[in-house]
Amino acid sequence: MIRLERRPEPSKLWTAVTPVLAVLLTMVVGGILFAFLGADPVGAIRTIFWDPLFNPQFAGFTRPQLLVKAGPLILIAIGLSIGFRAGIWNIGAEGQYIMGAICGAGAGLAFYPSESVLIFPLMIVAGALGGWAWAMIPAVLKTRFGTNEILVSLMLVYVAENILASVSSGLLRNPEGRGFPGSRNLRQWDAAANLELIPDTGMHWGVVFAFIAVIGAYVLLTRHIQGFNIRLTGEAPRAARFSGVIPARIILLCLGISGALAGLAGFFEVSGPAGQISIDFNSGYGFTAIIVAFLGRLHPVGILLAGLLMALTYIGGELAQLMLNLPGASIQLFQGMLLFFLLATDVFTNFRIRIGTGETA
Amino acid sequence: MDLSSISPTLLVASIMVSATPILLAAIGEMVVEKSGVLNLGVEGMMITGAVVGFAVAVETGSPSMGFVVAALASALLSIVFGVLTQLLLSNQVATGLGLTLAGLGLSALIGKPYEGMRSPTLPRIDIPGLSDIPFFGRVLFGHDPMVYFGLGLVLAVWAFLKFTRAGLILRATGESHDSAHALGYKVVRIRLAAIFFGGACAGLGGAYLSLVRVPQWTEGMTAGAGWIALAIVVFASWRAGRVLIGAYLFGGVTVLQLNLQAAGVQVPVALLSASPYLVTILVLVIISARGQHGAPASLGRPFHASN
Fold first, then answer.
1. Fewest C-beta in 10 Å: which of B63, B144, B238, B305?
2. What is the pTM of this model?
């Protein structure tokens, strides 16, 4: 008989081992999946995880993509992880990302074609505020009425998508675009373009902000009283209330941070890699970031690594689509599977496995 | 703008059709939550049901077969959630989200070859005489069997929870799993059964979308229907009868906004398309402002028998 015995504290060793174990399990099961799809499993796994970084033929093109994709994922996941730590489930980051992009681009385009150096900072602030404001809707509804933030934040994703469709063919449409939907291309406007800072690295302002967010979150969670309050709220809500933590303030803080970071990610994407507001400009980073946050163990440094890994699966997935004709959706399933395996192996972190019916020593 | 083009008879009839997928998913999820489990993977199970139902119906030519296999496939997927949360004691919120993300990926993968195809759809049951009664004939009769199945299921779940011993045990498990365990009930087994039922219902709801309501397969076609089903359970205060009201209310908003779009009302299309989601938020706010009524006390809490 196999029994689970709760550990007094989560195992530090297993906390670090389970993500690696989950990745390995995903590779094995993913390989089997690819075999069923008629691809060579070893070749497919190598195409996804190895070739984007080390293949002499095209690693030069794909390597910079790593930071381009990891930047928004890390930025969003850092914000989400702070909320998840406090038991506040913002799963509408995709909507906040869209609103950040719309507000950032909109604020800049209002001054087109000005070449002032203040345009870009203004857009950054507007992007962060857009995401923040969109996250404040579930936050205020939760603090005022106790409305479930999971459902509200998610519903707002669909609302944001409708707003995106509306502005890209209306308010923000490129007046010189011959009536096609989509805004002006921000990459072609020097004052607003978020271009590569160092050539051939993929490093743009969004990646810089992602790194700053990692450091900021680390300091907040380990060195600052609010970070302590956030962790306390998540682990022992009653104790938090007794020690004078006001739950409403934590809710506003957590959703505010995650919304602002998601908004920033959206803005940097629209002014850089994407270039313009268009109907389908959002690509699901807001949802993938949830996996990144968990895979990184809700820890800033872990999220940095998990973001890079997840970016690798994106690039590898595209490569596998091109080279091996694997369906693009299989990589989405791959990412979902990764989260499943992580959650499954987490049983080792929180429990000891005891075999036999004997009394515990 | 021409509002006279909207026929009240057709409007009510199409509300019943558009409410059915959410009704099926919501009533299943309500049973799951009544047992004390919060499964946020409804969207993932629904879309899996949608694609599997469609694929099977296309391959076999039988929509009924599609519904059966869709229910099985989604139930199977829900068992993954069940094993993770009940046996491996993972976080229910995170696992449910994972189920949705994986379901969306899985469905896109399965559905790729079926895009743009048409499937056989369910025939309407026309009862000569009854269906010809003005207004009521068209509204009450002449739907496809799944509409009546959904209504029957609501009635059955209501009776099961209210009158049967098994229903009482299920509710007890959801209110206090420790007490239920102390009384000798198998908490994990009961919850797994509830999760399985919820998965099957979500699968039926999804298959209804792809086989009857649309009837076609497009990637991501559930468009948040699973999440709305979750919201309806909250709106319904975990009561079967109110799930029916919630689903019809939502179906009404969906159909009405489509009709208004078609009639060319001077309201931005984006606002109309977003209205079902906005109404859901509004309803959630109104319900929560009145206080949490009827949420099972153990909802979302992991159960681990320490001895």
1. B305
2. 0.89
